[in-house]
Amino acid sequence: MTGVAFAERAAYLDRHDALVVADLHVGRGEASAVSLPIGEREDLVDRLTALLHGFDPATVVVAGDVVHTFDRVTDRSRGTLAALRDACEGRGADCELVAGNHDAALSGAWDGPIREEYVLGAADGEGDSAVDADPDAPRTVVCHGHEAPSARGDRYVIGHVHPTIEIEGDRRPCFLRGEGAYRGADLLVLPAFTRLAPGVAVNDMRTNAFDSPLVTDADRLAPVVVDPGDDADDAGGADGEGGGRGEPLRFPPLGEFRELL
């Protein structure tokens, strides 16, 4: 899978000059007893800002479950959404939202477009991105992953699953990548950007447990882990090359990985 730089809980698609994150679940801290020492808003904004400084993307795409509660978006959550947009605009990046299954009330708190899927690199001019770094880049469809997308692409990037891998009792957020894994196209599953979600350990998960129609053969998906202590600008270049201490740790596909544990 070429042209992808892995950072902490985010992926930069260099040929589209786009940063993609998923599952912010804004308001989860307010809606539950789970909290972070510095607060949910500061944590989300600080980490997104670090990624913006590290990659300087033209576009930031949030692949669904932008907010957590289904029925309403509180004033505090509205403030967090505004702060995230301000962080993007402060670096000259467009902030594009894709709807997830949690986002029924999102339209009441966001005055921009909310899409079912966001298409990058459409050679036919029917894509959503106004800026594409490479006209020959693969057509990439960003969607949440709870439903099958209508758009066809060379690569699909989704959230929804909240994947982690458990190694020696330590659960780590991970990406899952599969060559030709959905409709003959590449598939990239992102970890949840929120740190308030525990995530789902995929070590022993079978295909039907993933709750996503885009995961058609879990055994083909290979985990990628980035050290959570590394900043986005230490994440390395596309495909993680030259990443230094932020170089992603790549594991074999789950079908083989299970046999190693």
Automatic annotation (TrEMBL):
For this protein, the record's SUPFAM superfamilies field holds: Metallo-dependent phosphatases
Which residues does the UniProt record annotate as the domain Calcineurin-like phosphoesterase?
19-146
Known InterPro entries for this protein?
Calcineurin-like_PHP, Metallo-depent_PP-like
Q: Which portions of this protein are annotated as coiled-coil regions? A: none
Region annotated Disordered sits at: 226-254
Q: Which residues form the signal peptide?
A: none
One family from Pfam that matches here is Metallophos
Stored PANTHER family: BLR1149 PROTEIN
The identity of this protein, by name, is Metallophosphoesterase
- Organism the protein comes from: Halorubrum rutilum
